[in-house]
Automatic annotation (TrEMBL):
Residues 69-492 form the UDENN domain. It comes from the Eukaryota. This is DENN domain-containing protein 3. PANTHER family: DENN DOMAIN-CONTAINING PROTEIN 3, DENN DOMAIN-CONTAINING PROTEIN 4. It comes from Carassius auratus (Goldfish). Keywords: Guanine-nucleotide releasing factor.
Amino acid sequence: MADSLPSGLLEACIVVGPANDKLKEVSQSLLQVNGSPLPQLDPEVLQIHVPPFVSKESLSEPVERNFSQTQQQRLFVKKKNDMSDIMTGNPKEVTTENVSVPKDLDLVALPQLCFPGGLQITKKQEDEQFHFLVFTDMFGNQSHGVVLQYFRATQEGIQNGHLSSCKSPQLYIAYAICVISKYPYYNALKDCLSSLLFQLQICQVTDMEEQVREFSAKLALVPVPPPGQLYVMFTLRPLAIVLPSREDKSHPVIDLDLHLPLLCFKTRELLQIIASILTEQRMVFFSSDWAKLTLTVECLMLYIWPLHWQHPLVPILSQHMLDFVMAPTAFLMGCHISHYEDVAELTEELILIDIDEGTVSCSGCYYIDVPDTPQAAAQRFKCRREGLQLHYDLEVVHQRICSNLNELRMQRKRWQHKLNLEIQNITLELIVNMFRDVSDYLNKEHRVFNTDEFLKTREPGDQPFYKKVLETHIFHSFLKERLNGKIDKFSQMEVITQTEDQKLSRSMDYSRRPTIKEIVSRNGSLDSSLSERLGSSLPDLDRSVLKQIIPDKPMNIPVRPVKILQLPEFPSPLNYPNILHYFGDLILQLNKVISATPAQDSSLLARYLYLRGLINMLSSKRLDALSDFQNLYKTDIEIFPGELVKTLVDSLQNEEKVQAEKRSELKRLICQVKNNEKSEHEESDYHVKKFELPKSPMQLEEFVKCAQQSGIVRDMATSQRLFEALTVGGPQQIHPEMFRVFYNFWKQAEAEAQHIDLPAEVLERLDNSECVYKLSSSVKTSYGVGKIAMTQKRLFLLTTGRCGYVEITKFRDIEEVKISTASFPLLRIPSLKIKNSLKREIFEANLKSECELWVLMVKEMWAGRLMADNHKDPQYVQQALTNVLLMDAVVACLQTQKAVCAASKLAYYEKRRQQVPMIIPRPTAEALKHKINPSQNMTKPQSVDVLLYTPGQLTFPDRDVDGNPKLWCALSCGKVVVFDAVSWSLKQNCIHLGESRLNCMMGLDQEQVWIGSQDSVIYIINTRSMLCHKQLTEHHFEVTDFALEKLNPENRSSQAQVYSCSADGTVIIWDIPSLKVKRQFHLSCDRLQSIQVYNDVLWCGARDCVMKLSPSGALLCKIFLPDEVKTTSFSRVTLLIEKRQIWTSFTDSAELCVWDSSDPVKPPKWVTLPNCSGVTCMIRVKDRVWIGCSGGSGLSNVMGKIFVLDSESLTVEKELEAHEDSVQALFSAEDRYILSGSAKRDGKIAIWRVD
């Protein structure tokens, strides 16, 4: 049997009380001096109980300890039977024994923490009391303690070690029992100690140590449930005790009443406390009740989640530890209210929090020097808090009274669980509203956070708060999690609560200019017609805080259903055979529930498997335990206990290793554990850096890195063009001073844009999403005197005098842009002329020295708009805008005659317009609907390797789940991005699935997406959580394709099976609900690369042949490479069985072969594609075949074409100019649209109309 239960509830149980000799001294002094006051005694550790309590070697000793020498231990010498001596008055010779103690447990401080107010001796019976402790080691790992203080009476007086004829006064002595666990199960452990208290009150004094030992041994048998919806229940009579599980792996256990601080503090004080925590103040909590201290502090730690307190946390200080509050660093401590004045006088600038009175003050000053929380977030929190029902009695006033104690307790727990969920959501929303757009200022590529830019975008009144928070360890740790791409409740709520405008802005615009809608929100006062046109109901907040609108969405908090696993009754006596029998009963019970759990409920199944793995490990059934943990890959890999499995693998005996080698799934698991161990030794830079301006000259590579870190430019190509612009006519390096000047001009332009104030007449004429990017100086124009304003859609004149709006032109309507010269006496002033295709008159503006720059900018925007319209890709406009803003900053920075020439290096689209014909062929223009860029948040384009469209879901039980159809894109190096297929906005940025290329994707039952990888793993993504919870590892070579076979017409996943194939020729048939292998077979071929199912027949495509197979894998016929292309290989296979056609393409060939499926021996028909160097992908859509190709011709930049062929005539119906690189992927969206993805030089996705 294993040494101790991994993930068990108990870490240690310790009894603390007075020493026997001290107690005898007190008793004698009371006899000699009648009426003397009762002294306080120093508490000492009397008993220590730590697992393991039994072992195989202790068969003859039912409950005696057998201490393992294999564990890391610390030895402690205790006085044996000290407890019974005290109670019976029988002095015995003091003996000692060695006791193993958890290495991080401080036995010196523990007695004082168990009696923080001192150990009392009283003349009357006092009530029992509980309080709670938190222990933190030097690495930040926490253990949690629950302390029961209770009083026992001495039986008789003691005098010189003999019974006295005159009895001393009856004394009641305080003892403490402290249960310590690695998990914060405060309520559960309190219930456990309450059950023990019942036993202690009725047991004999001599049996007390045995009772505590047996109690500890029982707790050591209780496994802690894994994260998820499974709770564990066990019985310590008379109470049934429940251990709740964590919500997910990143979330802490919550087993306390989260509304306690809401009962103690008003909103203003509570927000002050939260601000003090987030700004890392020195804080001391006070209460007359020791129990309130830890519980309140722990609640507050949960309120700020996912941020974590990084400094000393000691919720209870004994009276001998008060000098701790003089520490110079940030801390969070707690004291009895009687020490309030003493602590306040010890040092200044302490935040003093009185829990009993609900007050917050500062020592040594009259006001609290802690900045207020951001006003908009605070206001929302206040509104949310007011809607909470915090009083249980009001909730159940209409319900019947339960006569059963445990039923009454469960009713209260259900209410508390629901309230805790509501509070968690409200406090999480507060944190999300404070730090909603932090990710916008993070550069994940270089692990840099742009602090200055983040601060500039905060409201002036909120900046003191953010200035302090941004310097804290709390925030730094939070940034590291965001940089590492952590997907948790914070990131999910951030997405859920985004407005449509925020989603669109994030996916399209990086320039941080206020939209017209935001300007309207900021101005506050609008006429009714403009308010109606904007259609936005603004939250009822102070207008000064509305620059950053916080979405007002209703909070939908589904209470997740939970299952409770009732553990068997604890055995008696607790000896080795009985405990083995207990574990056997528990395994049998888990076997039954696993068999009864439907395979569709894989999440619950995973929790049962996890617990069975723990018990098997404890029962020394190591291979069975490994098998249970390995099955988590198919049920929920999120709860896979990596460290535990590593320990388990290391403990395998030689015989077990031989057996594991014979089981392929265990062999693979062991190899994976060892590989992970190697990768852990590779050091990674997890440090988050602040952006700093350069201090030395920069070559191209350093400049590109610096430009990306600064947030000015994201993509590498634009950074390189900017480098060329700034180094025109000079050395090919950029001096730090030049970059500083350029950076300041760029940021100054951003700041000025934030303060543009447009009159209502102008706002009415612009679209909600438009932003003003550039304003000229006041100039004379043919439309009057004013300032020329540029948005992403148009140019307009902001007239002086009576501010008005005169539209100059939309960019798409421009026909010509040029510089002319306006003649004045003795002067020739350059002017800008713009010819609009919809107007007769030509607009002219005397821009003087600004003229050349404006001509350059207008031409670039014009070219960008033309390309956006032609290619149906709005990102061309966004890139043109970036180019224009960079031109403006370059000219302002250089201030030389060559400045405009330098800026012209950034006129990328204007150069393309001049060099390459921008006319799109009519078939392409008619078929192309839209283009999107899956690499928009990356520094360079990525190849689109695989595409998948999943249909929408019209009804959902959960309102917060998005039911829109989605587009899944597999990019280079194991990355997947997801788009909303209605708005084409980015829904999920970069799900990482290993480091290898992803080869294939398949949607299943609208709940799962299967993805096959070059690393031989099948990754399964949950479409609701967007997390990869399952992996299938049965393939040994790269997975190349999937096929879904429906076993009946009802289209249910339970009535279907999946075929997967890998390059080595292996085909596996999967049972979908259980993810078990139904059967598998191997094909002899050269690289199996595709599989399709039609009418109970499998068609498998390899490089050297196409095979027709029966469902069992029996070969029915084989198509070999034609003699004409013997030197090449098959690349793609597409079936049109209704037309008895098999379409095949060949590597690096523009030719297609169409075979007769009913007679494969018959010579095929040949089709040659024009202007094509090779077929890369091919799909069937209705009666047509769409073929993606590589290679192009002529002056066009088009390298990827799509040919649409009629299946009857085998002729090309359409030739579409699709991409600037080869077409890598094609997918049909419900036969209405075709999606095409290209290689990395283009890296975009095109949406095509089928008809």
